[in-house]
Amino acid sequence: MSVNRIERVNSLLKRVIGDSVFRVLMGDDVSASEITITGVACGKDLRNATVRVSVFGDPAEQRRVLGIMVHHAHEFERIINAEVRLKFTPKLRFELDHSLEKGDHVLAILDSLAIPPSDSPASTPSDMQGGDSSPAAVSP
Known about the structure:
Largest sheet: 3 strands, mixed
Strand order of the largest sheet: 1-2-3
Number of domains: 1
Strand content: 15-25%
Helix content: 40-55%
Low-confidence stretches: none
CATH class: Alpha Beta
Structural class: alpha+beta
CATH topology: GMP Synthetase, Chain A, domain 3
Shape: globular
CATH superfamily: K homology (KH) domain
Radius of gyration: 25 Å
Mean pLDDT: 83
Number of strands: 3
Oligomer: single chain
CATH architecture: 2-Layer Sandwich
């Protein structure tokens, strides 16, 4: 089986699962806006897939939301079976993905290291050329 095919299936499953999060979790006490499907990794035989999920909130909230998604795994599989034509519908396994949190942490560190702009006016290129604003002639 081609690697490109597995990548395409992973991308397709990510889109289908991401689009169906709101429908599946509508009755639960979960806001779909705090859930991001960051990736899907199918096995070579397409029978199993690991779904990486990022959840906004503290660790207890993340575990709670992940437990709800695991509880509804069969519904996600049913939607995949209805919307995607595959020989086998993969069995889904959900895991937390902390990469978005790490990215936010790095951005916060960079923001704290940012140098505030100085109060002195910036020098213009004409100031550096001695006041002559005409372009300098360049000979070959």
